[in-house]
Design goal:
The strands form five sheets. Strands 10-11-12-15-16-19 form a six-stranded mixed β-sheet, sandwiched between helices. It contains eleven helices and 19 strands. It is of the alpha+beta class. It has two domains: about 90 residues, Pdz3 Domain (Roll); about 230 residues, 2-enoyl-CoA Hydratase, Chain A, domain 1 (Alpha-Beta Complex). The N terminus and C terminus are likely disordered. The N and C termini lie far apart (about 100 Å).
C-alpha cells in the first residue's frame, strides 16, 4: 500500500513539474511577444497623439481619420493587393461580388488626372442620359471632383435606387460642358455576355468577372450552345479582373471530372497546401476549347485558363495574362470595415505559379493599346450596326485578331478531328470486310 501511494506521489510530482515547466516557457514566450508588441503600440500611440494635437489643420486629424490612414498605409506597404477596406469600400466590394448595386451604370477610369467615362453600360440610366465614352466628370451634386480618384467617384455615384444625382460633364471632343440629372436604379451586372454561335458551329462566351452568379450563368450559356449543336467553344476572358475563387473553380469544373483538381493554394507553411477539386457532376464534353486572354486577365480568370491549358482541355490564345496569382482573405472588423490581405498563392494543376508570371498563351497574338481600347468599345456595344457605331464613336469597327485566331484554331482542330475520325472509320471498314467473301 505504501509503495503504491509512493508511486502515485512520484507520478504527481513529475506531472506537476512538466505542467509548471510548460507554463513558464509559455509565459516567457508571451512576455517576449508582449514586450515587442506593446513597445511598438506605445510608439505608434505617441506619434498619433503628437499629430492629433499639433498638426496645423485640426479638421484633418480626427482620430478616426488618422487610424484609417495608418491602416491603409500598413496594408498597402505589403503588396498591391492587400488593402484596408473602410465601411464604404467593404460595402462596395460586397455589392460587386453580388453583381448588383444602386447607381447610374457607367464604367469609369482615371485618365490624365481626371475621372473619365470608359463606357455607359447598356440599358442603364447612364446610357439613357446620353453619357458618352470620354466624358470627364468634373462635378457631382455641385461638388468639384476634378482631383477625385475612381474609388472616391464610385462612392459619390452609387446610392439608393430612386435617388437623384446631378452630374457636370466636360466633353473634350466638342469642348462642351453638360449638366444632367439622373435617377439611380438597381444595376444588375451580368458577368456572362455575348453568348452566340459563330459560323454555325463555334460557340462564343465572354465572361467579364467571377461573381456569385457567374457559374450559374455560364453553365446555362454552355448548355444553350450545346443544344444548338456547337462543335467547339471560345471562352473569352480578356480584361476579366477575376473575382471569387469558388466561381472560377465551378466554371472550369464544367469541363473536369468530379473530384479532379482544378487548382491548389499554398500559404506560408507547406501544411497549408489546399487542393481544390471540381464538384460538378461529370459530363462528357470532348469538343475543342480556345481560351482568349490578355494582360487584363487576372486572378480567377488566370485560374480557369491555367487549369484548362495544363490538362490539355484548351488552347490559350492572346497575350500573357496579368500575373495576379495570390489569394486574398477578407477579415471583417468590429466597425463594419475589413482587412483584405494576401494569405496564399495559386498554382495550376501542373504546379506552375501564376503570381507575377501570368499564364503564357500557346499562340501569341498581340494588340496595340489603340486596338485594345477600340475593341473594348465594340464589345460593349454589339447592338450598333457599323454606320451607327462610326457616328457614335468616330471610328470604323476593326477586326478582332485574337478572336479570329481562336476561330481559325478551332476550325483546324475540328478539321483534324474529322480527318482522324474518317481514318478510323476506314481502318475499321478494312478490318470488318472479309476479302474472301
Amino acid at each position: 500500500m505504501i509503495k503504491r501511494n509512493l508511486f502515485f506521489f512520484v507520478v504527481f510530482l513529475v506531472l506537476a513539474n512538466l505542467i509548471f515547466g510548460a507554463y513558464q516557457l509559455s509565459q516567457r514566450r508571451t512576455a517576449s511577444f508582449s514586450s515587442d508588441y506593446y513597445s511598438n503600440i506605445s510608439h505608434f500611440g505617441q506619434v498619433l497623439r503628437i499629430i492629433h494635437e499639433n498638426y496645423v489643420d485640426e479638421d484633418e486629424v480626427g482620430y478616426d481619420r488618422l487610424i484609417d490612414a495608418a491602416l491603409e498605409g500598413m496594408l498597402r506597404s505589403l503588396d498591391p493587393h492587400s488593402q484596408y477596406l473602410t465601411r464604404d469600400k467593404f460595402t462596395t466590394l460586397q455589392e460587386e461580388t453580388q453583381q448588383q448595386y444602386g447607381g447610374i451604370g457607367i464604367q469609369i477610369e482615371s485618365r490624365d488626372g481626371r475621372v473619365t467615362v470608359v463606357s455607359p453600360i447598356a440599358d442603364t440610366p447612364g446610357e439613357a442620359a446620353g453619357i458618352l465614352p470620354g466624358d470627364q466628370i468634373i462635378r457631382v451634386d455641385g461638388k468639384n471632383t476634378e482631383r477625385y480618384s475612381t474609388d472616391q467617384m464610385v462612392e459619390l455615384l452609387r446610392g439608393e435606387p430612386g435617388a437623384e444625382v446631378e452630374l457636370t460633364l466636360y466633353r473634350p471632343k466638342t469642348e462642351e460642358t453638360i449638366e444632367v440629372t439622373i435617377v439611380r436604379e438597381i444595376i444588375e451586372l451580368e458577368s456572362v455576355r455575348d453568348v452566340s454561335l459563330l459560323d454555325d458551329e463555334i460557340g462564343y462566351i465572354r465572361v467579364t468577372q467571377f461573381g456569385d452568379r457567374t457559374a450559374e450563368e455560364f453553365e446555362k450559356a454552355v448548355r444553350d450552345l450545346e443544344e444548338k449543336e456547337m462543335r467547339g467553344l471560345i471562352l473569352d476572358l480578356r480584361n476579366n479582373p477575376g473575382g471569387l475563387l469558388t466561381a472560377s473553380v465551378e466554371v472550369a469544373g464544367l469541363f473536369f471530372n468530379r473530384g479532379e483538381m482544378v487548382v491548389y493554394t499554398q500559404g506560408r507553411d507547406r501544411e497549408t497546401r489546399q487542393e481544390i477539386e471540381s464538384r460538378t457532376p461529370a459530363r462528357d464534353r470532348e469538343y475543342p476549347i480556345v481560351v482568349l486572354i490578355n494582360s487584363g486577365s487576372a486572378s480567377a480568370s488566370e485560374i480557369v485558363a491555367g487549369a484548362l491549358r495544363d490538362t490539355n482541355r484548351a488552347v490559350v490564345v492572346g497575350e500573357k495574362s496579368f500575373g495576379k496569382g495570390s489569394v486574398q482573405s477578407i477579415e471583417p472588423l468590429r466597425r463594419g470595415d475589413a482587412l483584405r490581405y494576401t494569405s496564399a498563392y495559386y498554382y495550376t494543376p501542373a504546379g506552375v505559379t501564376i503570381h507575377e508570371k501570368g499564364v503564357v498563351p500557346d499562340i501569341s497574338v498581340s494588340l496595340s493599346i489603340e486596338e485594345t481600347a477600340r475593341l473594348l468599345q465594340q464589345r460593349n456595344r454589339p447592338d450598333l450596326d457599323p454606320e451607327e457605331f462610326r457616328e457614335r464613336f468616330g471610328f470604323e469597327p476593326i477586326e478582332d485578331k485574337q478572336l479570329q485566331t481562336g476561330i481559325d484554331v478551332l476550325k483546324g482542330l475540328l478539321l483534324y478531328a474529322g480527318l482522324d475520325n474518317a481514318g478510323e472509320m476506314r481502318a475499321r471498314s478494312s478490318v470488318d470486310v472479309d476479302p474472301g467473301d
